[in-house]
Amino acid sequence: xxxxxxxxxxxxxxxxxxxxxxxxxxxxxxxxxxxxxxxxxxxxxxxxxxxxxxxxxxxxxxxxxxxxxxxxxxxxxxxxxxxxxxxxxxxxxxxxxxxxxxxxxxxxxxxxxxxxxxxxxxxxxxxxxxxxxxxxxxxxxxxxxxxxxxxxxxxxxxxxxxxxxxxxxxxxxxxxxxxxxxxxxxxxxxxxxxxxxxxxxxxxxxxxxxxxxxxxxxxxxxxxxxxxxxxxxxxxxxxxxxxxxxxxxxxxxxxxxxxxxxxx
Length: 264
Description:
Strand content: over 45%
Shape: elongated
Helix content: under 10%
Distance between the termini: 56 Å
Mean pLDDT: 89
Radius of gyration: 22 Å
Structural class: mainly beta
Order of helices and strands: EEEEEEEEHEEEEEEEHEEHEEE
Low-confidence stretches: 50-54
Number of strands: 20
């Protein structure tokens, strides 16, 4: 039976909300099957009577009770012995929704999305508090970064929070800090590139930035995950700044965490 997802969203309450375009009503006993792409582990959800109207069905599935682990989960409808992978015409992507979703403190973050070949899938990540990068640049000899505090539970209001940007590297060990501005969940931070070179002269290497915010238990790693661009190390390249002839550039790791590369 042809089934197409016309609208897909994980709500702020971690409910997978789907609207399906169908050629015929869904049969009693139909199940939604979520299958982990890496392990082939499956979770089945009986749909009961989904309330079919003319050529469409609306479904709502609470995800937290399913105890799904991190990873990518493909979606299917199971009707008796027949299994249909769910096609989707909805990209399932909204920056505004992702920002709102990240304001709550969570342990897992769920996202519905359309795969490259047009099927509905779920992406599940550990939701550790983090500093989500929105802009990063070098200007006037400084490294500057702005973004959003994600999964900290802080309110998106006008309250100011004491904060510091830290830049750290190993071999040899070195650390620099500077005052950062945090208002509500929005942050801005900057640090002198000359100070970076002076902290480890004649040493190439990679520096790891983090944000320390009063009221948040652990330092927040700087990264960029609340969008639809996975693998930024391959896809996103910044020009290098030259400080005393030494190239310095921002880059991302394979896990989409921000780093500062000096030399090389």
